[in-house]
Amino acid sequence: MRYSELRKWLKNTSRTLIVALSLVISTLFYAELPRITGLIGVSIGTAVVMITPALLNNDLYAKSTCDICLNWTLIIYAAICTVLLTTLILLSWNNYEGH
Fold it and tell me: Domain range for residue 50?
C-alpha cells in the first residue's frame, strides 16, 4: 500500500476526535463513570472473552457433538450472565454512593 500523507492526517484527526469526545463524556458524566464502565465491561467482556472464542471453536475445531454442545452451553451461560449482570447494574444505578 502506498504511503499517503492525507491518510496519516485523517487517522490522526479521527484519533484526536475520539480522545476529545471521551474527555467531554467523562467530564460531563463523572458521577456515573463506574456504572458506565461496568456496563461496558459486562457487554464487551463476555462477548470477547467467552462468546467469540466459543463461536470460533465451533466453526474451526469442533467436530464431535459433545464439543459443539459444550461450546453452545458456554455461549448460553455467557449470555445469561450478561443479562443478569446488566440487570443488577441497572437496578442498582441510583443506589451507588460514588466517588
Answer: 5-95
